[in-house]
Amino acid sequence: MNFAALQDAVVGESVATRWADAVMEWEVVGVEYDHAQGGVCVCGKTGLVDLFTIVNQRNGALLFPIGSVCVNKFGRSDLDQEVDVLKRFLHLREAITAREWIELTSEYFSRALIRDLYDQGAFPPNAWNGGDGWGDCDFLLKMFNKHDKEAITAAQNRKIRALLGTIKTFVLADERLM
Ligand SMILES: [Zn+2]
After folding, report:
1. Could you write out the three-class secondary structure of the chain?
2. Strands laid side by side in the 26-33 sheet
3. Residues 101-115: pLDDT tens digits?
4. Pairing between strand 26-33 and 62-66?
5. How far is the CA of 15 from the centre of ligand 1 (A)?
6. If you measure from the C-alpha of residue 2 to the centroid of ligand 1, how many angstroms do you get, rounded to a whole number?
7. Tens-digit pLDDT profile for residues 19-37
8. What is the sign of the dihedral through the CA atoms of 139, 144, 147 and 151?
9. How far apart are CA 33 and CA 46, in angstroms?
10. In the chain, N or C terminus with fewer CB closer than 10 Å?
11. Is the Cα torsion angle 32, 35, 36, 42 positive or negative in sign?
């Protein structure tokens, strides 16, 4: 990646005129998977696979595509986490569309991803979670953290399968994944 070109592209679309201030204006809003690896980053790097879109919160400017390596250069841990979670979501969506058997393991999930699902409203309140989606999220986090998967009961497994079904529907409709 070409850091000077990245700085030019970002500062050029920002309200602030200094890099250190300009990076504070941006949010990650979406990602697209390019099978053909034909993406060219705003810094000029070719062969991008994960094409992120970032939007300036102060003037509405949009930069696309930008690679995760360049977003990481912003030096903002919140953006780094968002990029990681969206990459995992892309992987999960690919697996769903490929009709893979999805399990609640680190191959498909992370704690951050499960929490993000809750933040995005993937667990609507209903009769099974007592009207509070946090219960579903908390349950999945506990099951995900269990080292001894054999200790998961049949009833818990049924609940996991049901929630994974809800998550699949949500991920396929997630507008952040383009
Ligand atoms: Zn780049």
Report:
1. CCHHHHHHHHHHCCCCCCHHHHHHHEEEEEEEECCCCCECCCCCCCCECEEEEEEECCCCCEEEEECHHHHHCCCCHHHHHHHHHHHHHHHHHHHHHCCCCCCCCCCCCCHHHHHHHHHCCCCCCCHHHCCCCHHHHHHHHHHHHCCCHHHCCHHHHHHHHHHHHHHHHHHHHCCCEC
2. 26-33, 50-56, 62-66
3. 999 999 999 999 999
4. unpaired
5. 21
6. 7
7. 999 999 999 999 999 989 9
8. positive
9. 14
10. C
11. positive
Q: How many CB atoms are closer than 10 A to CB 80?
A: 15
Going by C-beta distance under 8 Å and a sequence separation of 6 or more, which residues neighbour residue 69? 1, 45
Q: How far is the CA of 69 from the centre of ligand 1 (A)?
A: 6
Distance in angstroms (rounded) separating the CA atoms of residues 32 and 53? 8
Cα→Cα distances 63→21, 33, 51, 175, Å: 17, 16, 10, 17
Residues in a beta bridge with 31:
52, 177
Structural domain boundaries of the chain?
3-74, 93-173
pLDDT band at 136 (very low <50, low <70, confident <90, very high): very high
Find where tokens 């949009």 sit: 62
- The gap from C-alpha 144 to its chain's centroid, in whole angstroms, comes to 18
